[in-house]
Amino acid sequence: MGNELEVELTNSHNSCFKDAEKLADLESCNADDKDNLHRTLKGRHLSMISIGGTIGTGLFLASGASIATGGPGGALVGYAIVGIMVFFLMTSLGEMATYMPISGSFNAYGARFVDPAFGFALSWNYWYSWALTVAVELSAGGLIMEYWLPHVPNWIWSACLLVIIVGINSISVKGYGETEYWFALIKVVTVVIFIILGIFVATGVLGGVKYGFRNFTLGEAPFVDGGYGVLGVFLVAGFSFMGTELVGVAAGESENPEKNVPKAIKQVFWRILLFYIGAIIIISFLIPYNDPNLVNSGSVQDVSISPFTLVLKLSGLKPAADIMNAIILITVLSAGNSALYACTRTLWMMAHSGMAPKIFGRVNSRGVPMPALILTAVVGCLAFLTSLFGNGVVYMWLLRASSTSGFIAWIGIAVSHFRFRQAFIAQGHSLDELPYRARLYPLGPLIALVLCTIVLGGQGYEAYSNGSFDWGVCIGGYLAIIIFLVLYLGYKIVNKTKVHKLTECDLSRF
């Protein structure tokens, strides 16, 4: 299938462009209104989409394992560093997305401001990242339902989950936005209640002991394993924030991107601070870092040891495990829903850019790219099937590749923004023309670029375990980087593309 797709891509490359240097000009290819997306997402939808991207299993499950890895201090520092990095990335994306709101935004920006080959590689990297995420969420949904109905085969629940998210995405972009709004609202309310109850438990308001700071001084705490512990948390924490860039993907379907995108972007940092840092502080106060439950809390297979479940039980909430299992099921639905949305819009953009067959640029009367949606659902199913065969080795490789490719996408945002601002000045524009201006340029995107590169370089960190080296973990960690380089160099060689001169970068808004 991969070879056939590659042939189709090569044959359709010039369908919208006279030559490879014009690859990034999306709007000129989009002359046929019947294949346009609909701008119906409201400000509240974008705000909740950005929240939904940050609150997931990384918070509800993996936060406990992070505390066990680096101790309370190491977890706080690791998540804070990643939070700052994401803030800079979102402001960079916000500056470009408000000036030129295009669906699949930063992938198109890579082609416009850097090199058509760079945009091509970024786009396919981002598409398969989210397509594999669909498979991951299908698998997770089956495991979650097993908690209540252990005798029903997991694949049945996975199939039901797929039908639901395909149905939601088939309605309209407004249907997706509305569904994601309520999913995200449920998650926000859960975190707020968790923090409030945690404070009551820690201070003794609900009775029992006053915990104080004793867990912050226990054993090696607050920094377990020193700098290596912080690095371990840092590598894991980045994956928890994957999806925050969805607000940029959705910018092309926003009613008023110049107003709504900056509003959503500005709130990202404070949400991260409240939800992640606040939750980690509460967990650290109440549960010691060496608690066996925290060490094993990163799996959806046993929600009873989720740090959120443990804290809610301390508050006296008896059905805590059932409540958290339901919340995590909603989280999986939300993640799968967003993954399918991101894939279809990215593939639609590629079709209109000459980077994918034209058929995937078609939309129905409701503005939904159905061919792109169907292909993504099929690829997600095929990837899911790898979890059922060969002891899941291939599936784990795909899972790691999907996670790593998210950091490649973030590097694409940082590089594109750096080039965008340089080209903007080089072509005689004034910064006053920008509807929204990123903070601390050029320091912001440079910091984000360096930190993302460190994470990518550290993917082999987990391959060293107990004095041995795991080649499977190593291959899975670096597979996405290899795929990206093959896509980039292959397209560059075939089409003989060059890095754009700053004075020739396409800054046209419409």
TrEMBL record:
Recorded topology in the membrane: Multi-pass membrane protein
Domain of life: Eukaryota
Transmembrane segments: 46-68, 74-93, 127-149, 155-173, 185-206, 226-247, 268-289, 323-348, 368-389, 395-420, 440-457, 469-491
Subcellular location field: Membrane
Entry keywords, A to Z: Amino-acid transport, Membrane, Transmembrane, Transmembrane helix, Transport
Pfam families assigned: AA_permease
PROSITE patterns: AMINO_ACID_PERMEASE_1 (PS00218)
InterPro entries registered for this protein in UniProt: AA-permease/SLC12A_dom, Amino_acid_permease_CS, APC_YAT
Residue ranges constituting the Amino acid permease/ SLC12A domain according to the UniProt record: 45-502
Keyword Ribonucleoprotein: no
Major subcellular location class: membrane
Protein name per its UniProtKB record: Amino acid permease/ SLC12A domain-containing protein
Organism: Basidiobolus ranarum
